[in-house]
Amino acid sequence: MFKGNQLEDQTIQQRREWVFLLMAGIFLGSLAMLNILGVSRFIDLSSYVGISDSSDIRFVIAVGVLPYPITFLCTDLISEIYGRKRANMVVWIGFVLNVWILIIMWFGGWLEAPAELLSDGTLPLTVGEKGAEAPSGYAFYEIRKLTFVATFASMIAYLSAQFVDVQVFHYLKKKTKGKKLWLRNNLSTMTSQLIDSIAVILITHYYAGALPIADGANVPNALMMFIISSYLFKFFFALFDTIPIYFLVKRLRKYLKIEDELGF
User: Fold this and answer.
1) What is the pLDDT of residues 153-179, one digit of tens each?
2) Hey, which of 37, 47, 79, 233 would disulfide with 87, CB 3.0 to 4.6 Å?
3) What is the pTM of this model?
4) Closest to 190 in 3D by CA, of 246, 232, 157
5) Separation of alpha carbons 159 and 165, rounded Å
6) Phi and psi dihedrals of 149, rounded to 5?
């Protein structure tokens, strides 16, 4: 028979593991989604932020950027509640997940590969009575090519940005003696996301040429526009998530009965 305290301790431990699995799951799911969606589509948000259609300045982000801020919210929550070791562990698992995505996408394209596959790994459109038509598997090979590009770029940027996020977060936590959660949450996320934005844009352009830059356009200016657009989007959400992270940390500490980070 379990005593009352033993049953309570077991329940609390189960809660802690379930909450950790939930946050890690959201993190890894968001990461997989952003890599598969990647640069498959670019969204012009200029009109939403007050930039006129006639302006040369545009606010354009890749669709894969949309779930990205959630990953930093998850690692900051894990860092605050479970400690640096668990946060770093999740980051490494995310890296392995990136590799797994590449393997599955490669294997899926290699199995029974169409004879008409082009050198860049995509399928040509066929010309029928109604004009150009997409052959079976066309969408998969297009997404496959872009996933390779996005995942390769994000793997390099991801490790750099996520580890910077965790290290800056805990450095500031030590310096502020566990106070000013808003400061370490914002500074760690904003610093790491700047690194991520620069790395992803430059790798995507120079390695794969996958950015929608028009012929004859000023490439440095276009790259700067993509970097600034991506970073401002992440910067805004880094500020926005200060409220939910305070709320969640307070509620989770009470629910999980944690006074300070668990440190495992």
Assistant:
1) 777 776 777 778 778 888 888 888 878
2) 79
3) 0.76
4) 232
5) 10
6) -65, -50
